[in-house]
Write the structure tokens for this entry.
Amino acid sequence: SQQGEEDPQALSIQEGENATMNCSYKTSINNLQWYRQNSGRGLVHLILIRSNEREKHSGRLRVTLDTSKKSSSLLITASRAADTASYFCATDVETSGSRLTFGEGTQLTVNP
Amino acid sequence: DTAVSQTPKYLVTQMGNDKSIKCEQNLGHDTMYWYKQDSKKFLKIMFSYNNKELIINETVPNRFSPKSPDKAHLNLHINSLELGDSAVYFCASSQQGYGNTIYFGEGSWLTVV
């Protein structure tokens, strides 16, 4: 089974609203990363949170990590139509060399 | 300048053919990867090379053979293509070691007919 599983699978909101996506994983991790994928494009790294961190911010993004629950959330505040994309969480469990295991992603649609 | 570039972007080919996808990164990274994304957008690592040495080789049919002529290039050759090989293949790179950001190419859409 997958290491990372996102919830919900799809999310549709209005511009200006906040979007929250969740990710659960099964094994201990070194870090967890969030990526965005626009339709027909490659993945773009958004933010990395290490296993000893609980919260991290980057612009309109806020990521939390709860290692006791093996879960993470990505919050996008004041969403824009340009935020429409698929969002993936990826866990890194290796001690040498990155080896990301991705979830299936959340498709976010922000309606203007 | 594109950091991780892969060609071709689109490839339509018949079953049984052999095809290659090329990848180059200009970021000076030591580690390169191939990921496969299926129709449900599920991404899975296939291979990882560090300084031209294979370090990760997932359970991938041996029809898939990566080749790294130097640390800036990692090509993927696929023999005897099958319908199930249809997917998007992403090349990526990162600095050596864990916890580093992985930079992805734009993907190569392979359709086997």
Q: What stands out?
A: The radius of gyration of chain A is 13 Å. The CA atoms of residues 83 and 100 of chain A lie 23 Å apart.
